[in-house]
Design a protein that fits this description.
This protein is mainly α and about 80 residues long. It has a single domain, classed as Aspartate Aminotransferase, domain 1, CATH 3.90.1150. The chain is built from 3 helices and no strands.
């Protein structure tokens, strides 16, 4: 179970979660979706990895995540 927050510091509670950049998460969400990775449309929801995911799918998700983060960092 995981989620991604785009913020300057750690997210430890509701107040710190509310400092996150929701626009940047939206960009990340759309980039991942374009690559075939379906994330929750809100960063305030959780993503799950399960036994239904095989190594190939996890590798694809990792590669798409790295690509998305690089694009966001280059902006």
């Amino acid at each position: 179970m995981m989620t991604c927050f785009f913020t300057e510091g750690p997210v430890t509670d509701f107040n710190s979660a509310m400092t996150a950049d929701t626009e940047k998460y939206g960009q990340h969400f759309r980039q991942m979706l374009a690559g075939g990775i379906w994330l929750a449309p809100s960063q305030f929801e959780a993503a799950f990895v399960s036994a239904a995911h095989d190594a190939s799918q996890l590798e694809t998700a990792l590669n798409m995540t790295e690509s998305s983060f690089k694009k966001l960092a280059d902006q």
